[in-house]
């Protein structure tokens, strides 16, 4: 089912290789962190689905608003994800949690679950690199965002943070 979603997202983003690469990388880090943190199978499934779809509203936001900032993605993404997840046969409970994660993945206070934490960490790992942020910004993110042992280790190694 995750592979079907992965391929559906690639199809949805047709011609936008940069964004396809983005969600593929976020998915890879999210899966690695989740498995290393020993989350259960349902949580892993939810994390993987959320990682693949977290930016699903980006094209719609660009068309509707001429902008695709994080808050607009949080606003518009869940409804788009709901339709796709329903079409692919995802359980309602999983779909609702994925929609919630999409609606909050740029909100960093009140992170309410390991799935949410892992999604944010995976997205940060990719965004720090893709946005060309400074080592100081990576260090600040390390201290303010990262909580999982695996996420912290990847961040330290990737951005040469000595703590």
List keywords for this structure.
163 residues; globular; 0% strand; 9 helices; mainly alpha
If you had to describe this structure to a student in words, what would you say it looks like?
With 163 residues, the chain is mainly alpha-helical. The chain contains nine helices and no strands. It has helices at 2-12, 17-36, 41-53, 58-65, 70-88, 92-102, 114-130, 135-144, 149-159. The model has no long low-confidence stretch (mean pLDDT 94).
Which helices and strands appear, and what pairs or packs with what?
Layout: H1 2-12, H2 17-36, H3 41-53, H4 58-65, H5 70-88, H6 92-102, H7 114-130, H8 135-144, H9 149-159
Summarize the structure.
The chain is mostly helical and 163 residues long.
Query: Major sheet: size, sense and barrel closure?
Result: none
Are there runs of 5+ residues with pLDDT below 50, and where? none
Beta-strand content: under 5%
Q: What integer value in Å does the Rg equal? A: 15 Å
Shape: globular
Secondary-structure element order, as H and E?
A: HHHHHHHHH
